[in-house]
Each structure stands twice: as C-alpha cells, then as structure tokens.
Recover the amino acids of this structure.
C-alpha cells in the first residue's frame, strides 16, 4: 500500500538537491583519487540540455557514472571514503548514499567499453574524451547519444527526445551514429513527442 504524504514543494526541491549533492560528492571523490570517469545518464543529458534551454531540463533520481573496470578498486575506495556503501543488485554495481539508502539514492556504475546487457548492439563508450562541466566530467554528446540509442529503454528514448527538442540532435545525426543504431535514431526523429 502506498503511503501518501502532504504535498510539499520543499520535499521536491530536497529530492533534486540530494541528487546534485550526490553527484558532486561522487565526482569530487573520483577527482581526488585521479580516477578517469564521465557522468552519464540523466545528469549528463540535463547538463547538455541546460546549455541550450534551462527550462527544458528534466530532473533525474540517481547518478550514473562511467568507469573503466580496471579503475574500479580505486574508485570503490574513493566512494567509500566519501561515505558511499558498495552493493550489487541485479548485476548493477552501485554505491548507496549511506547505509540506509536504497538503489534510487545511489551512484550507479556502468563499465566503459563493455555491454551493459548482452542483447545490446554495442558496448558503452570510453570515459575519454570528455567535456569538463563545472567541477566534473561529462561524456561527449556523440558518445552519450550512442549510449542512449544502445540502451533504448523508455527513459533513454525520452532523454533523446529532450536532446532533440532543444536542437542538440537532428536529422544530420543519422550519418553520425553507428549503422547498428541508425534505425533507432530514425524512430526518435520520426516520433519527437513520443
């Protein structure tokens, strides 16, 4: 049974701030440990979208980080020194934001140059090259788009629609994406509103 609390703008703002804080703490820990990484997922999409239209930014509930598997042990030590708690759930490596946190209050790890799921057409991107954004690194737009097209879950298609809506991607991208992803890109372009 779902327990409803009172409506609260403060609770909504707190949720967004918690993700922002988690992102900054996680990336600061990686920077301090000199671990190569890139922010991916909803935070990366939001950062790219905000460069064009702040009002078009969509909030996200967690933090996704791209790491090389060879750097995982050093990254784990860095995250744990920042108060994160390691766990693996359903083959997802993640760092909970404290001992009582759940998977939504976590930093999720995706390994660079590996497939997230065997059924995906391509492996994930590498962490480099990247774009520097404020105090953290963000995956290059082209690589982010390819990862979104590769995963192609509903939220990935929505993220692609967000990039399309602000003009960061358009029909010219059909020639930029790998051939394995072209039909998916065509579908996004043909259905800009879902």
């Amino acid at each position: 049974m779902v327990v409803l609390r009172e409506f609260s703008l403060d609770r909504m703002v707190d949720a967004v701030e918690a993700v922002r804080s988690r992102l900054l703490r996680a990336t600061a820990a990686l920077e301090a440990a000199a671990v190569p990484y890139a922010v991916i997922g909803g935070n990366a999409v939001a950062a790219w979208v905000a460069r064009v239209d702040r009002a078009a930014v969509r909030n996200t509930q967690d933090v996704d980080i791209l790491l090389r598997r060879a750097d995982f042990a050093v990254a784990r030590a860095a995250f744990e020194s920042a108060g994160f708690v390691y766990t693996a759930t359903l083959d997802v490596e993640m760092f909970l934001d404290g001992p009582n946190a759940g998977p939504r209050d976590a930093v999720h790890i995706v390994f660079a140059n590996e497939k997230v799921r065997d059924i995906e057409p391509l492996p994930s991107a590498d962490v480099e090259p990247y774009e520097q954004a404020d105090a953290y690194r963000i995956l290059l737009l082209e690589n982010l788009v390819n990862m979104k097209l590769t995963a192609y879950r509903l939220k990935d298609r929505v993220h692609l629609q967000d990039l399309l809506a602000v003009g960061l991607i358009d029909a010219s991208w059909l020639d930029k994406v790998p051939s394995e992803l072209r039909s998916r890109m065509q579908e996004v372009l043909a259905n800009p509103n879902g």
Summary: The chain has one domain: 36-190. The mean pLDDT is 96.
